[in-house]
């Protein structure tokens, strides 16, 4: 089995050595421009078109949960990947737990009003704020994929009312499910904390806009863990100014790194992290990839295959 690897900033030696330990009979190399040698599998992130074009691959593995980068390339260069070659993404591989930690931290903070107390500290103000009722502090998750389900389950453990919206019907134990455009309004109107974990597709870009935010419960909170392209940034600022949104926590942005002059940096009601809510964990990812390749070799279809027509 021949495997080629490309990632714009991951250390290739770590992945090549780790996969070699798991697949001792495989031949694994870092792809370089001009390398047109035989390969069965490709491990990639933002691959150059010429890396994949013309190859008779058994499968391509995207080194992340999101595949919008490679799908965007395919829309511009459909010849990059031969028809029928399956594309797989990392569905969890340790990212689910990290997303749980991030979401629980912010939801509990907003529920207990900790950011507001921190603001009072800067004003040397000693003032008790009214406790919120857990039954009223409903959490709605946009996206019911592996990560969305993981986050939902972590919040159920804290007894928050949790709902989920997805494009098609999904069932998650203990979670109120909504699906399709017709049920989006009902989902939003019942949501106090909105967590975005949608895939980035042409249909979902800009979905977190003023119209959508205005349909949430008054004084709602926003947590964007998916992609910066989902959020219309000016609309969030307007919604906070209008009191429709109380606060937001953002891990992803339209332009990364976030420009130094961006209004988000200085906004007192917007928390920022540098796109690290959940990072790829090499050992967990390599365990999945190695097992998936062995399944492919046995004529099986591993979990995590991307529906290229739907974009996730």
TrEMBL record:
Ranges for domain D-isomer specific 2-hydroxyacid dehydrogenase NAD-binding: 106-277
Keywords: Cytoplasm, NAD, NADP, Oxidoreductase, Pyruvate
Domain of life: Bacteria
GO molecular-function term, one example from the UniProt record: oxidoreductase activity, acting on the CH-OH group of donors, NAD or NADP as acceptor
PANTHER family (UniProt xref): 2-HACID_DH_C DOMAIN-CONTAINING PROTEIN, D-ISOMER SPECIFIC 2-HYDROXYACID DEHYDROGENASE NAD-BINDING DOMAIN-CONTAINING PROTEIN
Name of the protein: Glyoxylate/hydroxypyruvate reductase GhrA
Taxonomic path: Bacteria, Pseudomonadati, Pseudomonadota, Gammaproteobacteria, Enterobacterales
Name of the gene: ghrA
